Amino acid sequence: MSQYMIMPGRASFYKYHRHPAIAQHTRAFHLPCCALIISMARLLAALLLTTAAALLVVGQRNDAAAPSEAEEFWRTVLPNSPLPDAILMLLHPETNSVKNANDADAQGRSRKNPFSYIGPPIRFTYGRDGSHKHLSPGPPSSDDDDDTIGAAFFHEEALQVGENLTLYFPPAIAKPLGLLPRHVADSIPFSVSSLPDALALLGIAADSAHAANMQQALEMCESPTVFCATSLEALVEAAMASLGTRDLRPVTSTLPHSGMPLQQYSIRAVRRVDGSSFVACHDQDYPYTIFVCHSTGPSRAYMVDVVGGDMAIVAVAAVCHTDTSQWDPEHIAFKLLGTKPGGAPACHILPHGHMVWANNAARSSA
Questions:
Q1: Alpha carbon 180 to its chain's center
Q2: What is the top-level taxon of the source organism (predicted)?
Q3: For the residues 221-232, what does the mean pLDDT come to?
Q4: Which of 42, 74, 145, 248 has its CA 20 to 30 A from that of 201?
Q5: How far apart are CA 98 and CA 76, in angstroms?
């Protein structure tokens, strides 16, 4: 019998256990006149984390041929689904050599990431009846007229062989710690209420931008319509629980780590992904890799082969949201597409590292 048992409906990714060392540091924070102790504790925690990460990387380098426990888990529970390159890169961050050569325009200015408007960090507001609305990640700024934003959304009828799409794929985000082993990730506090403990353990100042980003991510993760995974095992288990099946597969774009420039791409092939609702997962800004996942709602997914000016053909995943009736009327997609909530589907490409999970049963029954 496999050592990896998935209990249907069990949301093990919601349970986080406080490490004994964390509790000890927490008690120290409440002692009066202990600024020196606090500083020493934070320094010790940072040194311990750095040492652990270094040992982990050294171990990976010395035994690069041996698959990690997370890889073994994947092969056991998803034997018919190859591990996506983006995930493999996160499991072996020491092999990451991402360059940002394509992440600038002709004047050398840093390009705005158009995919910040896709899924989380799209937020939700909730009514007293439990209803919610899709919201864009904030009011458009003066930088939102960047031509890359226009490359984020397109109409579904554009997904035809021979059509051209203006697209931009930013470089993969370098993650020095990558996806942590499950036992390490589960030992780090992961909730809004325990954020001070996490900051102390990771050696991050409470008034820093990193701390603010962590709080924003944790608040999103505690939304009832979103789940967050801090390890590969938690990611797979959560997708299985959400789709109600163990027979699923990830759908991802196959893109170079360095990204691809803003340009017109010609569509060479379009393949429909069976199903009418999926689970989408997005890499989130955090000290280590976490995925924020949510149901796509009524939607259609595609794999699209495109070719750019350099004649390199890449396969990209696309999702078309067929019901936008609950989206914020001010969502930038409506402005770009000239539509309104409940109108024509809003489509977008998935960048490197993002994925949708599809139910294989939909494919076999089609």
A1: 14
A2: Eukaryota
A3: 93
A4: 74
A5: 30
